[in-house]
């Protein structure tokens, strides 16, 4: 049975509720920090900000079970170290809230095969694989459940995930039209420009947490490792230092990183340097100054993993107050007999 005032009570504040998820594959890096972590930290509002580690999404490809568990706790700890505040955000692990998978199935019952089959990420990730998991095909529907479960009005998303949020909007609209107004139709929020931090060894490719590369600035890397990575960064022919992403992507990427760390404008920052080495040293200093507090706080939290687990358990309790109402409303609307 839907609790009195349940979903209707939640809709009073839905437009300002924002959700951000992190799949525990690879390692979190500077692009993740400026593109997703810092914006959520800066915009946390009690009971309206939801931050979660999407461990179920890590199961769509071949994986090591022990590694998924390890990275799930690591990601949660890094997010806390970077400023995710359980007093101002609902902070949880996806699989700890069973309503995610329960709503996933209900939404599959309102989604066409063709809709998920044409998702670009599915085509790309399944193209060279002999064994494609069904979860890879239906992962966008689970992502829709993640969003719709909490009546999120805002979803910060990069270009690679826009199609999935559009699918969530389509599913919500269709379900509401067919069965009644259960879900909030979310809208996308563009990430900040700083999210476009590129790989230092391939400045035309976005920095990736899943791809092994010598050009990634990982949040938990030591200062020496970060400095070596920056000093080895690919630059451009000639010696001019100017912010020109189209023609000089290597230098533009270094200036973008410097600007993200210091708050400067990359065009103005370019005028301060007379050579590549001088610029790289400044970038390395700025990156280390940005990541040092995160790394130190992470080390402190890692010494007491039970405290992190308690934060996650508390987040589950808060999350399920919203999620259980949503699932109850969806089950009733779609025609299931209440227990």
UniProtKB/TrEMBL annotation:
Protein name, entry field: Tryptophan--tRNA ligase
Sequence motif 'KMSKS' region, location on chain: 206-210
Lineage: superkingdom: Bacteria
Listed NCBIfam families: trpS
Keywords from the UniProt entry: Aminoacyl-tRNA synthetase, ATP-binding, Cytoplasm, Ligase, Nucleotide-binding, Protein biosynthesis
Stretches of the chain forming a coiled coil according to its record: none
EC number(s) stated in the UniProt entry for this protein: 6.1.1.2
PROSITE patterns: AA_TRNA_LIGASE_I
Record carries keyword Plastid: no
Matches recorded under PANTHER family: TRYPTOPHAN--TRNA LIGASE, MITOCHONDRIAL (PTHR43766)
Molecular-function GO terms, alphabetical: ATP binding; tryptophan-tRNA ligase activity
Binding locations of ATP: 23-25, 31-32, 158-160, 197, 206-210
GO biological process assignments: tryptophanyl-tRNA aminoacylation
Naturally occurring in which organism (per UniProt): Nocardia macrotermitis
EC top class, as a word: ligase
Catalysis performed (reactions): tRNA(Trp) + L-tryptophan + ATP = L-tryptophyl-tRNA(Trp) + AMP + diphosphate + H(+)
Motif position, 'HIGH' region: 24-32
Gene name, Swiss-Prot/TrEMBL: trpS_1
This protein's GO CC annotations: cytosol
Family to which the UniProt record says this protein belongs: Belongs to the class-I aminoacyl-tRNA synthetase family.
InterPro entries per UniProt: aa-tRNA-synth_I_CS (IPR001412), aa-tRNA-synth_Ic (IPR002305), Rossmann-like_a/b/a_fold (IPR014729), Trp-tRNA-ligase (IPR002306), Trp-tRNA-ligase_bac-type (IPR024109), Trp-tRNA_synthetase (IPR050203)
Compartments (UniProt record): Cytoplasm
Annotated residues for binding of L-tryptophan: 146
Function: Catalyzes the attachment of tryptophan to tRNA(Trp).
Pfam families: tRNA-synt_1b
Assembly description: Homodimer.
């Amino acid at each position: 049975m839907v609790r009195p005032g349940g979903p209707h009570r939640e809709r009073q504040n839905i437009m300002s509720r924002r959700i951000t998820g992190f799949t525990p594959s690879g390692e979190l890096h500077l692009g993740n920090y400026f593109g997703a972590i810092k914006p959520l930290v800066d915009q946390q509002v009690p009971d309206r900000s939801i931050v979660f580690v999407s461990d179920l999404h890590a199961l769509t490809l071949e994986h090591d079970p022990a590694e998924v568990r390890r990275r799930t706790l690591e990601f949660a700890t890094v997010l806390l170290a970077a400023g995710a505040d359980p007093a101002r955000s609902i902070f949880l692990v996806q699989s700890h809230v069973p309503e995610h998978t329960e709503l996933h199935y209900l939404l599959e019952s309102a989604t066409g095969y063709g809709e998920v089959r044409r998702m670009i990420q599915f085509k790309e990730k399944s193209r060279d694989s002999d064994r494609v998991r069904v979860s890879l095909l239906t992962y966008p529907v689970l992502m829709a459940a993640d969003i719709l479960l909490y009546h999120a009005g805002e979803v910060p998303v990069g270009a690679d995930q826009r199609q999935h949020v559009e699918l969530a909007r389509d599913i919500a609209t269709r379900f509401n039209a067919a069965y009644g107004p259960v879900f909030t139709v979310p809208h996308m929020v563009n990430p900040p420009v700083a999210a476009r931090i590129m790989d230092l060894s391939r400045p035309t490719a976005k920095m990736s947490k899943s791809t092994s590369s010598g050009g990634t600035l990982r949040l938990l890397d030591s200062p020496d490792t970060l400095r070596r990575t920056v000093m080895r960064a690919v630059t451009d022919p000639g010696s001019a230092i100017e912010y020109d992403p189209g023609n000089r992507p290597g230098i533009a990427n270094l200036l973008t990183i410097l600007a993200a760390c210091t708050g400067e404008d990359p065009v103005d920052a370019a005028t301060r340097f007379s050579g590549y080495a001088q610029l790289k040293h400044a970038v390395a200093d700025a990156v280390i100054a940005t990541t040092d507090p995160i790394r130190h706080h992470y080390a402190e939290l890692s010494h007491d993993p039970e405290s992190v687990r308690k934060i996650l358990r508390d987040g589950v309790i808060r999350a399920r107050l919203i999620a259980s109402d949503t699932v109850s409303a969806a089950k009733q609307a779609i025609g299931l007999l209440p227990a």
